[in-house]
Design brief:
six-stranded antiparallel beta sheet, 7 helices, single chain, Glutamine Phosphoribosylpyrophosphate, subunit 1, domain 1, alpha+beta, seven-stranded antiparallel beta sheet, about 30% strand
Length: about 270
Amino acid sequence: MCRFLAYSGPPTLMQDLLLDSSYSLVRQSRHARMRFEPVNGDGFGVGWYPAHDDAEPGTFVSIEPAWSNRNLRQLAAKIPTRHFFAHVRDATPGMPVSQANCHPFQCDEWLWMHNGFLGQFDRCRRSFLAALSDDAFSMIRGNTDSEHAFALFLDEIGHDDKGRIVSADATCMLAALSNTLRGVEAIRRDAGCDTEAHMNFAVTNGRTSLFTRYSSHTDSQPPTLFYHCENATCIIASEPLSESASWTPVDAGQVLVLEEGRPLDVRSLDI
């Protein structure tokens, strides 16, 4: 499984959290502390919302390990942003290491990340594709379970008559994400998948962000998830970026709702 983080707050350079903090995401790519396999070297990606008036995020992904990519260090030191996603990947066995499979995935104004896996995905992938609209089907570029779940979510949000994803507020996003989790469970069940599915999903449209910590098996713990909020700044991460005691763990079965201009809201998932 992978590691990810999200930042929302006053303009900052991405290097502060990606590179400079005590347990930055790049450090976690080499030595994560809260998972059995510490290395996340199968590529990385960042997605950020520009400081100027542009609703569509920029993205940069690479199949190189995050710790050895010069371009990441250059970009992270130069680009200020109020909101960004970042991800380091540990590919599920059988999933190719390719740019198309690197997170975060982007479509129009939306970004999506996943830390976890859908067990026996090869058994249910055809069913996933059959469940998608033509627009969602066409947006898939790779073959990860994560991107297929993103396509399912975008169908829940909806498309306009030009195929673009419609705008959505927090209520609509939460309903769509809950339906996505239910849809994943239904597709897997109908395909005879009986192994675990861990679904720590992160999704944003640049104004509202949602983060889940969820496992299909109640006796199994999904990957860790924490948050740290102070004043107008909120950071959500797979594991703490520092030794500070102010990181709060997210319980299994919870979803974080972060709306622009509002405090972080922690809710129970209704699945």
